[in-house]
Amino acid sequence: MSRRNLLIGGALALAWVIGAPRLIRLTQDEFPFEDMPGLPGFRSLGFGGGGANIALLGIGEGEAPGPNPLGSNPCAAIFGDGDDRLPVAVFTDYFCPYCPEVSELVRRLDRAGEVRAVWREWPVLGPRSEAMARVALAAAAQGAHDAAHAYLMRNALRPGPAALAEFAERFGLDAGLLARDAQSGEVQARIEATRALAKRLGLPGTPGLAIGRTLTAGRMPEARLRRLIELERERPACTA
């Protein structure tokens, strides 16, 4: 072997000795997961440092704790029944600036059969957010949640009956039933249940994500979400 090749080989070996621990450390620190207190098997990611990409930090501070909304089966409480795809629950607000991007990404993965999307309407940004969440849930009662959700993520719904009638016509819905359901106790109960669930899970704001038993919040680039999905699939399934 020539002296030149020996020098190159030595340099590469030295680079590996220096660089390998850093590569290993970077792999280990890829996602700094933390165990969730009181939720065996659940872990959180990104609750502390992602404030710039989360809408409304610190919600619910100082409130008295209510009944545990997770019951004895957290997976059932978060995701409900469904098929055997990895469930991904998305906690969204229609005025959250980061929710449309995350919502569309999860919708695309759901349509491709890669995950099972579970939508949690979580209006944290005021009365108009709640009004739109109510309309989305009322549309769900007529089987049109996916289309209504996608539309409302990109378009604000004007207040008043005329705008609601136009919305109903756009999606072929019964306008009167839509208006009644939006103000129903059942819709109110679903919103309150999501609020309690988000608080129990410690979500700091929207968009919030439960990827199986991994919880995170904030803007989520596709490569990062796909990697989290890949890692979560290696763990025991979170099923009802």
From TrEMBL:
Domain of life: Bacteria
Pfam families, per database record: DSBA
One GO MF term attached to the UniProt entry: oxidoreductase activity
Entries under SUPFAM superfamilies matching the protein: Thioredoxin-like
Record-linked InterPro entries: DSBA-like_thioredoxin_dom (IPR001853), GLR_AS (IPR011767), Thioredoxin-like_sf (IPR036249)
Limits of the DSBA-like thioredoxin domain: 88-225
Name of this chain's protein: DSBA-like thioredoxin domain-containing protein
